[in-house]
Amino acid sequence: MVKILVTGGSGMVGAALVEKLVKDGHEVNMLDIHDVKIEGTNYIQGTILSPMDIDKAMDGCEYVVHLAATVGVDRSLKAPLECLDVNVLGTRNMLEASVKNDIKRFVFSSSSEIYGEPRELPILETADYSPKSEYGASKVIGEEYIKAYSKKYNLDYTILRFFNVYGEQRNEFVVPLFITAALKNETLKLFGDGQQTRAFCYVDDIVQGICKGIFEEKAKNEIFNIGNPGGEVSMEQLAQKIVEISGSQSKIEHVEFGDKIRGKWREVFKRVPEIKKAQEKLGYEPKWTIEDGLKAVIDYYKENLDKYVEPDMQGI
Ligand SMILES: NC(=O)c1ccc[n+]([C@@H]2O[C@H](COP(=O)([O-])OP(=O)(O)OC[C@H]3O[C@@H](n4cnc5c(N)ncnc54)[C@H](O)[C@@H]3O)[C@@H](O)[C@H]2O)c1
Q1: Which residues line ligand 1 (CB under 6 A)?
Q2: Which domain holds residue 149?
Q3: pLDDT tens across 281-309, in order?
């Protein structure tokens, strides 16, 4: 059993990961600006922008899973400097402290946003970087800092590029937006023709990938796509599935891309990961079908609908 620091442990991925690590008998410190108590962990309320908070949180840890970030394209548009600070400077702070504390492995949550619109499908880890957003760019910079620190200080790392995770998350992303609209029988809005594709991956499958990234010898100093190609759907199919599974009366409507609300310039039209590398080297295997995953999340939202407020995303 080992002692692990999880940054962003209060978030969607972090909370699911922390619960699994505690269940498996590990000692977990979590550092997050938001206080979400998870039984069995040492919670440190603080920011990755403060070296002092990081030092406190990393005390005695052998592994770091760095998930804390300003997450998502929309948020990076709304708060570009926060995105730069947290995702770039914050990651550098985490690397500095990891070197100082002789961390055995630094596991980093990168994103499929680094690829932009892919030239080939499915997307391999060797595909070019071509981010369309500051969020994607900030993840590219994070990855490059990690590789540079590894060369300079022999810090071992695993970079995991997550593809479209869904679970119990903030109401700013397409899955919770569609689910909350469906549960209120409101119209689900599709941008453009709705034929954009994503391969959605249930959060527990991402947690499986992270655990492999921490503990598998073959994950050392490697980059992996972590996602679920089996979860590939168009936005239109996603909306239809959510309406059907939730038993909603909602209509599905097509709307134009806008300059402010969702610019076409930032849209990625096709995205599906190639995960062979993770399957072959790590034994990673996503287990959740999109129908089962959506059902689990819909059931959760049915119980917790009152907690979810309309996102403050005007002007994007
Ligand atoms: N959700 C996805 O589809 C997806 C896809 C690709 C990559 N990722 C990456 O996975 C990681 C986890 O994402 P998530 O979906 O759980 O997001 P989330 O927003 O639910 O969690 C992020 C957590 O980071 C914390 N945080 C933000 N700024 C911080 C700071 N300065 N100091 C300490 N904590 C801070 C937040 O409070 C939050 O709890 C992120 O790095 C994200 O970029 C997510």
Answers
A1: 7-8, 10-14, 31-34, 47-49, 67-69, 71, 86, 90, 109, 111, 162, 164-165, 169-170
A2: 3-165+202-227
A3: 999 999 999 999 999 999 999 998 877 66
